[in-house]
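Weekly sync, protein design subgroup
Attendees: M.S., D.O., the rotation student, P.L. (late)

Item 1: inverse folding check
M.S. brought a backbone from last month's batch and wanted to see whether the design step gives back something sensible before we order anything. D.O. pointed out we never logged the input encoding, so this time it goes straight into the notes. Structure tokens as presented (166 positions):
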């Protein structure tokens, strides 16, 4: 598997190829079979991968929290909810959720650990979503993830081999 620091560069080099593979999957892959392939590769590759040594997703994205998660995380941090929102979050009016104000994520500490480790928002826990159903309908999102997450990148490369894509 590629080191985290090389993922963006390597994904950029394969950008056109990855777009072609995405189109290939849209036209040729069976949705259920593709979900099973993603799930199997996800389990296999994340089994020995330490996200704490990478944290590319924390560096590249803002965390998204629902209203319920805002309440839960504020309690976890022993903060009043309005103070927590004012300190860390901005309301995303279109989605009705909250986003952290900064990238890297405001909860990523200097030592590389997440301040919310035991209380992470659902989106953070599920990233890069490679074990979630409906992968065929979200392949554009995968193109973003493979430029950030070493496991998503490796899954994509292995899928190319499975489908004999050149």
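Designed sequence read out in the meeting:
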């Amino acid at each position: 598997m590629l080191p985290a620091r090389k993922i963006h560069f390597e994904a950029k080099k394969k950008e056109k190829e990855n777009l072609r593979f995405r189109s290939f999957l849209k036209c040729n892959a069976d949705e259920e079979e593709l979900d099973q392939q993603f799930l199997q590769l996800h389990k296999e590759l994340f089994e020995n991968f330490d996200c704490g040594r990478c944290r590319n997703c924390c560096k590249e994205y803002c965390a998204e929290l629902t209203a319920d998660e805002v309440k839960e995380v504020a309690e976890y941090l022993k903060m009043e909810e309005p103070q927590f929102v004012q300190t860390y979050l901005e309301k995303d009016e279109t989605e009705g959720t909250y986003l952290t104000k900064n990238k890297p994520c405001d909860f990523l500490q200097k030592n590389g650990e997440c301040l919310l480790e035991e209380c992470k928002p659902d989106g953070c826990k599920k990233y890069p979503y490679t074990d979630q159903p409906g992968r065929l309908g979200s392949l554009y999102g995968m193109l973003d993830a493979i430029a950030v997450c070493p496991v998503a990148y490796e899954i994509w490369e292995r899928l190319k081999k499975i489908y004999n894509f050149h």
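Discussion: The chain has two domains: 4-8+15-49+128-158, 62-126. The beta strands are 64-65, 89-92, 97-100.
Action: P.L. to compare against the previous round before Friday.
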